[in-house]
Amino acid sequence: MKRFFKFVFQQLESLYRINFSQRFYVTAMGLSVLFVFSFWWPVLFYLANVGLWALGVLVIFEALLLFVFGGISAERYLPKRLSNGDENPVRLTINIDYRFPFTGKWVDEIPGQLPTDNPEMKFSGRKPQEYQFQYQVRPFERGKYEFGMLNIEVTAMFGLVRRHFKLAQPQEVPCYPSFVHLRQYELMAQNTALTFGGLKKFRKIGQQKEFDQIKDYVIGDDIRKVNWAATARKSSLMVNQYQDEKAQQVIALIDGGRNMKIAFDGMDLVDYAINAALVFLNIALKKQDLVGLQCHDQQQQDWLKPSKHPQAMQLIQEKLYQFSPTFSETDFSQVYTRLRHQLRQRSMILLFTNFESERSLERQLPYFRKIARQHLLVVVLFINNTLQDMLQDPVTDSASAYRRGVAEKAQNEKQLMVRRLQQYGIHPILCRPEELTISTVNKYLELKARGLI
Length: 453
Description:
single chain; alpha/beta; Immunoglobulin-like; Rossmann fold; 6-stranded mixed sheet; 5-stranded antiparallel sheet
């Protein structure tokens, strides 16, 4: 009899992908114990036999309910592309067509590049209905992400049998640089006097050069801007109105060297730089400047000529998405040579790079000085979050004192590098990786307001 039921269970499991629950195995183990003790107490044999038949009937009954009377369908809805470093929503729709009490659990197969476990959730009900679920994924690398199957297990009222579904076909979605922040920071392009998101006011130096329009004089206008010819024609005071110079060339220069491989909060410095460059160039384009891009390491030089074409941001996004640095030592002499041939007029160059020691900066400083003679050069340096946090730790023993000394030395060396750059007319940005986007936008708007570009 036991062989017969074992054969039936194996066939059901192989044919219909039935999974037996823990409750089933506990019940079967209890019946086995009764059969063992029936050697000493024969009455237990009849109880165990009845229990075995009842277990078999319940298993067949639940299997019929799960496999004959109803089913499940599901869909997964992914964004067209993921935003790197940001929370991206994934929606699930599960349709249940069972008319008896049931419980279930779904587990989604997410890409292996994501640092979290596969999301899962339980659900239950008594009638056909549609369930809506949503979870968030936060990627830290650009590239293709492949989602697998959606696994769903359902049990009926007795909880002895589980039916396993594999739904929602595998899907592939690309992960682009953080385009979510583009909308967040676009307001900054409307007015350089905004104090939104850490933006500061800066006093403009000198006069605005580009003519905008002739308007009626109002109290407070500069009397030196009175247009006497227009005043004679209109018989009322007219003044010239000027605006900031536009159509300046702004270049984002991203270093793919080994110093940019350092990771903070799961994301490499080069990806922080790529996300910040995308927002920075979008702001510059909104300010009607010409935006360009150069990504480089030892083996490749990706170049986009400065442009204010409506499709410029789309091209920049594609270039940033495809950039795969080798993280080898960067030859800045080649960078300088290429910039000299590619840029014929003075431009603002925002260089995303990193130096951990003053000696490494000194090796590249001659090339930075040559670039700064022809262009407005801004160099980004990153604060090491780990060392910075060490400065807040209390000193309790010699080991903690040593760590504090190392952190203070690193901090002082960064400040020396900042002053060294300023000595040669290079504008530095020293910030934490997570503050890079707002810091670069602030620096651009500051230089724009001061009339340096």
